[in-house]
Structures are given as C-alpha cells and as structure tokens.
Amino acid sequence: MYIIGLDIGGTKVEAMLLEFRQEGNEQWQRYYLPAAQGAAAAAGYFRIVQRQRLPTQRCRSYAAIVEDMAALIQRLIGEQGIKDAEVVGLGLAAPGSIHPERQEMMAGSSGVFIGQDLTGDLQRALAWQGVVSLENDANCFAWAEAVAGVGLRFGDTIGDKTILGIILGTGVGGGVVIRGRLLSGRRGGAGEWGHCRLFPGGAPCYCGNNGCVERYLSGPGLEAQYHQQYYQQSPERPDALAIFKLAEVFEPMAIAVVKQYQRHLAQFLATLSQCFDPDVIVLGGGVSTQAVLYEELGDLLGPYLFVKEEPPTVVRHHLGDSAGGIGAALLAAAHFYAIRNR
Ligand SMILES: [Zn+2]
Fold first, then answer.
1. How far apart are CA 131 and CA 91, in angstroms?
2. Would you say 173 and 194 are in contact if contact means Cβ atoms under 8 Å apart?
3. Exposure string over 240-249, b if 16+ CB within 10 A, otherwise e
4. Ligand 1 centroid vs 210 CA: distance in angstroms?
5. Span from the CA of 174 to the centroid of ligand 1 (angstroms)
6. Same fold, 2-141+321-340 and 156-317
C-alpha cells in the first residue's frame, strides 16, 4: 500500500510517496506504531518511492494553493503508474497549530490556511476517499522520530516512553509523544514552546510577547545575538551556520555567542525535562546539525535539573530533513490501521 506525505513549508511544499510493506531489507526503513485508541500495534517497513517539490508563492490564494497541491499529488501518483485505490492515506504536515477534532489550523506562520477546511478541500479536489490527516509539522517530526527514528532503539517498549522532538530551525517548535500517543492538547497547541518566555523583557517576538525561546534558540535568533552584541567589531552579518564555523576556527566573538547559545539551550531543555521527564530529546532543524551542541550538554544541563540522576538523553535526529513528510505519512498510517482494525 502507499501513503502520501505532504510537508507544507513557508517556501516550499514537499510531497513524497511512501510504500508500506510487512517485510523489508536494509533498503527499507523500519517503523513501529504503538497500540492506541483501541487499535493494535502495527509494525513493518516503508520506503520513499519518489518526492517532488513545489515552490510556494506567498501571494497565491488559498484556492490556488489547494489546486497546486492536488496537481502535485496527482503527478506523483501518475508518474509511478499507481492506481488511486492503492493510495490509502494522505498525511499533511502544516506550519501551525491544528485543532485535534476540527482538523483546522488555529494559529500559524502561514495565515492563508487558518480556519480553512484543508483536508476536506484536498479530498474534493482529488475526488478521492482515503484517510487524510493534518498535523503540525513539528508534531510530525516528533512522531516520525518516535516511531521510525530515534524511538526504534526502544523496540516494542516505545509505547511506555516519553519522547520530545524539538525543532531548532528558522523557528523553534516541537512535539511530545507520550506512551505511544502524540500529544496535541485541547486546541492543538501542545509543543509550541518556542513562545515560552526565556527572558522577561527580552527581544520582541512576532507573537506579541518578548523574550521568547524562539528569539534566542532559532537560527535567526542566534544571528541576532551575534549581530547585536558584536556588530561594531564585525562588518559582516554571518548566518547561524557561519557563526558556528567561525567558532570552530576560534573567532572569539563567535565562540562567546555559541557558548551563550549552549547555555540557553541547556536551560530550556532542563525546563522541558522538569515538565515531561522524557526518555529522549531529539533535536531537528538546521541548527541541530552542529556537533558542538551535543558536547558538554550533559555538564551544562546538570545544574538546571531538579532530578539530577540519569539526565535525559539528547540526540540528533535520525531521519533527516524529510521527517515532517514522513511523520505526516506515518500519522495517516496510524489512522488507517486504527480504522481498518476497528
Ligand atoms: Zn513569541
């Protein structure tokens, strides 16, 4: 069977066609979906058959974007010569908070989707009756890593674990998988900790508050710290990855900003540990690729932790930057199995 994962980003939509099977080899990726909501656990293998990207133009209307997405999906299926009936699900990862029952975007950086019936409109545009699920992109990342990435280390005990996925990218977001279930919250706002306050009276944020975690731990947040603190000495405005590179070659200003970032990250991860006491914290997003973040993190975390024994393991993502689309497809798979097994 096949499932489509669609990752809706600020600058592009990435669609991927995933094939699911019971048996696989090293070319295939293992997954383990814990039992949930009366449905039995499901396990097997998947592989990405094909992916396609589409640039998103901010000025396009909602109706035009839905048409573009439907055309992208049809092209993906058509090029593989697959019958529509073989595609059992469509999972959407969207940049916003999704109401768990209404499947509607409540808040997000792409205002065009807020309040729209995206899943219904796509089904109508495709004239197709499969399972469709819509979830926040950081929640999709956390789900993918829990059931097919980092979480595989726990095998079939994944259903007993707590895994936090944290995106450190152009923004900061995350998702919580507790005992095999993705935590959405009442209005889909669980995991939106990028807008928790790290410093009262700190840098203003687009959300209307100031001192938000995102203003310090996102890529642009790190750049702004470097720029504000050292602009006089530096004629350039390097981006986040360039700042990490400068620190590697012992540029003192970059070292100071990276060290400050590591302290802020430790403080934030300790706060989340106090809230959830997770088994694993997995980091994703562009900034998470920096090896230096994982060095000394245990020592930096220690003083901030209330329960100091066995601090949570903090690891880099396993599934790469396709985790959003993969997670969306794996959520659709979970819905499909839940319905089929009912
Ligand atoms: Zn904010």
1. 8
2. yes
3. beebbebbee
4. 6
5. 14
6. yes
What is the spatial distance between Cα 33 and Cα 210, in angstroms, rounded to a whole number? 39
Residue 311 is which amino acid?
P
The CATH number of the structural domain formed by 2-141+321-340 is: 3.30.420.40
**Top-level CATH class of 156-317?**
alpha beta
The CA 121 to ligand 1 mean position distance, Å, reads: 30
Q: What is the pTM of this model?
A: 0.94
Question: What pLDDT digit, counting tens, does each position of 54-84 carry?
Answer: 887 767 889 999 999 999 999 999 998 888 8
Domain spans, the chain: 2-141+321-340, 156-317
Q: Among candidates 227, 235, 232, 258, which has minimal Cα distance to 245? A: 258
Q: pLDDT-derived band of residue 298, with 50, 70 and 90 as boundaries?
A: confident
Q: Determine the pLDDT at residue 233.
A: 66
* Centroid of ligand 1 to alpha carbon of 194 (angstroms): 7
Q: How much is the pLDDT for 36?
A: 73
CA separation for the pair 41, 38 (Å, rounded): 10
Per-residue tokens: 169? 């990218």
Whether pLDDT at 314 is above 70: yes
**What's the 167 CA to ligand 1 centre distance in angstroms?**
15
Cα–Cα distance between 155 and 190 in angstroms, integer?
Answer: 26
Distance CA 56, CA 90 (A): 19
| Residues 144, 196: Cα–Cα separation, whole Å | 24
Task: Please tell me the total number of residues recorded for the chain in this structure.
Answer: 342
